[in-house]
Amino acid sequence: MATAKLFLHGVPDSPAIWRPLLAALALGETPVAVPALPGFTGPLPAGFPATKEAYAGWAVGQAEALFAAHGPIDIVGHDWGALIAQRVAMLRPDLLRSWAVSNAVIDPDYRGHRLARIWNTPVLGELFMALSKPAKLAEGLAALGMPADIAGEEALQWANKDKRRAILKLYRSAKGLSFERDWAQDIGKLPARGALVWGADDPYVELAVAQRFAANTGTPLTVIAGAGHWAIAERPQEIAATLTTFWNGL
User: Fold this and answer.
1) Options 2.60.40.1120, 3.10.105.10, 3.40.50.1820, 1.10.10.10; which CATH number does 5-110+179-248 get?
2) N or C: which terminus of the chain has fewer CB atoms within 10 Å of its end residue's CB?
3) What is the pLDDT of residues 47-59, one digit of tens each?
């Protein structure tokens, strides 16, 4: 039986961001899970604190369920989903055959992009969320390479106040995007079967971050020239070819 796949999206996205890549992968009968981060497509579950640790624990639960049904899985993450996927790999390598991440890594020297710093700042983050409009978000995402139909779909979900609250809680639990004193301490626990795929022109997490991580850990890096942060949706055929080659080599 084909190895089950778990895809984790990032911020401010939803499972819709994976649609172009899933179509390009044409996984057929392969078991696939593409869950929404809690609070991102509906209300936050009661009592869910929306911290990075809570999301990592939730993702471990998703991986455990797939493992129970199908054995070791391939986990794939983008943006915050990449960070969470790596954390799952650190905590529960027994659940995985492999991990692959796009345009984000747990890096001790990365200090976050401008938006991360805004969301990490009390009052300023709330003001940003109160003033941001779905139409403007759709326009901005499309300008950065996200397919316009998906950008519009993601922007519609911006009306969900729980999603905006969850994003603020998540970024503040990570002090913007600083992992130097916690998750980055466990980089050595990452299983060897990993891969990085990066849009070269990412304005949020520059290519140098991926290159540093690859050099320090020996993780193979595939660079998608001319693509940005959402390379998974912008250049799905190239990403699919990279992942397929990676999986076939395991």
Assistant:
1) 3.40.50.1820
2) N
3) 999 999 999 999 9
